[in-house]
Write a structure and sequence with these properties.
Blueprint: H1 14-31, E1 33-37, H2 38-54, H3 61-75, H4 78-91, E2 100-107, E3 114-120, H5 129-137, H6 144-172
Antiparallel strand pairs: 1-3, 2-3
Helix pairs in contact: 1-4, 3-4
Length: about 180
């Protein structure tokens, strides 16, 4: 029975596991996306999400300083802590939780370990807000030809605006006279 064994030990001692999660957390904050095994990604999620939540408490200067010190005790990397509080915190300020996403990538060829990519949700351009805005502008119809036509019309409109912009820059230049 596994009574009280909520934490995944990752087949490591406590100090090794702490160092591993510390390094993975710093790399995740720095690069916004890392690839690791599925078990490590799941363990990292439970390690890093409370730290990201601590960046949202900004009532007073003392609270912010206290949270900086707490997060630094977990990460031991000044650059990662600064990145977390200055870059990551403003992007996740309105999100109530779920700051990371785990995507399974399949099995590793050498040892058949399950590989996964863990990333910060708000820093992904593929699944980001810009994709949702683009799909809202396209009118939904039942015919597939209308959708293709709508996307072709928007592409043509963008093309004409770029041509007009280049034409306006050409007209502002002084004409050269050759003698």
């Amino acid at each position: 029975m596994r009574h009280g064994n909520k934490k995944n030990n990752l087949s490591r001692t406590a100090s090794h596991r702490k160092a591993l999660l510390m390094n993975l957390g710093c790399q995740l904050i720095t690069y916004k996306r890392i690839t690791t095994t599925l078990a490590k990604a799941k363990a990292l999620r439970t390690y890093i999400e409370p730290l990201i939540t601590k960046t949202k408490a900004t009532e007073s200067k003392e609270v912010i300083m206290h949270n900086h010190r707490i997060v630094f005790s977990y990460l031991n990397d000044k650059a990662a802590v600064k990145e977390l509080f200055t870059v990551v915190a403003p992007k996740v300020a309105d999100r109530p939780g779920g700051y990371t996403r785990i995507i399974k990538l399949g099995a590793r060829t050498g040892d058949n370990a399950e590989i996964a990519m863990i990333e910060l949700v708000d820093f992904n351009e593929i699944y980001g807000n810009s994709i949702g805005e683009a799909t809202e502008t396209v009118k939904k119809t039942r015919r597939s030809g209308a959708k293709k036509k709508a996307t072709a019309d928007t592409a043509a409109a963008e093309e004409t605006t770029t041509e007009e912009a280049t034409a306006s820059t050409d007209t502002t230049e002084e004409p050269t006279t050759e003698a």
